[in-house]
Amino acid sequence: MGYGEAVAGGPLTRAHALELDRGDPLARFRDRFEFGDADRIYVDGNSLGRVSTDARRAMEETVNEWSGRLVTGWHDWIDVPQKVGDLLGQAALGAGPGQVLACDSTTVNLYKLAGAVLAARPGAVVADGDDFPTDRYVLAGLADAGGRELRMLRSDRVAGPQPDAVAVAAAGAALVVLSHVNYRSGALADMRAITAAAQAAGALVLWDLCHSAGAVDVELDAAGADLAVGCTYKYLNAGPGSPAFLYVARRHHDELRSPIQGWFSQADQFAMGPGYRPAAGIGRFMAGTPPVAGLAAVHACAALLAEAGIGAVRRKAVGLTALAVELHDRRLEPLGFTLGTPRDPARRGAHVSLRHPDAWRICQALIEHANVVPDFRHPDSIRIGLPPAYTRFVDVWDACDRLVALMGAGTHLRMPAAAARVT
Ligand SMILES: *Cc1c(COP(=O)(O)O)cnc(C)c1O
Predict the structure, then answer these.
(1) Ligand 1 neighbourhood includes 48 CB (under 6 angstroms)
(2) Disulfide: which of 7, 215, 328, 398 matches 322 by Cβ 3.0-4.6 Å?
(3) What's the pTM?
(4) By 3-state DSSP, what share of the chain in percent is helix, strand and coil, each rounded to 5?
(5) Pocket of ligand 1 contains residue 183 by CB under 6 Å
(6) What does the alpha-carbon distance between residue 274 and residue 268 come to, in Å, rounded to a whole number?
(7) Tens of pLDDT, residues 68-88
């Protein structure tokens, strides 16, 4: 029996949640993360993952190496973006070696890859009007600078972009950019079908995997994907601002060139010659000097994921989100909540979005008065992120229980209505 059925068919008691935890094959990985406040229920690991003790150790080792070796450390550090990229590809992305780099930020990688496609091919850019802001802003900037049309998909806010709509929008386009898992609703796009639809219309597809990497069993090679980017500080737990990754399918390496002609992407980097010639292979998508300590953290987290197995992680994410959906239906809907996430487990990632007209104040009350940490997303969503490596079923139960108690007491009604800068 899968987790989904175990949850939906269960008695939905706290004891049942504890029983699911006892049968959890990933339970032992919880010890590899740091829990300062044992009472705090942290359901915001989809924004910033918890501290991984493996990542902490790897960063400390890098500092020792730096201390011992100083500049000679670069003999080994120089290849780290490729090595970590290969491990990420294998552990999290379903990508064979030589196609993934761990480097820069998601925003910068998006700019590099989208810019590379627009330099190589004519036509419009297709984006999702409901996508994460940085994606929309970067694409608007590139479209403006290159005099390209920017077509915005208007998808259903819960279900996200669908293959048919992408096929229509992609006609005559150079590039389609979409999030695999929507940052607000948690909707999981059909990567295989959408990629095929866009490619049939003549466009390349760039997937943003920020909310998929480490949460969903991504299969870039098998899906025939062209390009992807994503971060490592959400479900991969490599720390605030840890280096991101990019993927370029091998068949596109020769055609595409990064618009950032940095020296780390140069064919013969240390000849330091007068002209720029991009390196062969994935290395041409590097920019400058890689952040070695951050990459050590990404390496440690990718290794942990390889050990846990993305299949097991995905199965547990389905179970955790199924429990959250069940609890919503039975205990939260009567309090005025609606589910902002697809009900089909095959169509959602590892977070659940709860919508409520008073979402902002409820979210603040949860943080300040119930020691439950989710986040708020405009205009009316509370995101409950459930990273499988360290989240227990009983955490989902307790978070819901505290939420019901707080609503019953009207605690949220005493919270100020204004929004803070970072939530
Ligand atoms: C978190 C997130 C980003 C973050 O980009 P940064 O460059 O790391 O700030 C980008 N896209 C999506 C969809 C995200 O969820």
Answers:
(1) no
(2) 7
(3) 0.97
(4) 45, 15, 40
(5) yes
(6) 11
(7) 999 999 999 999 999 999 999
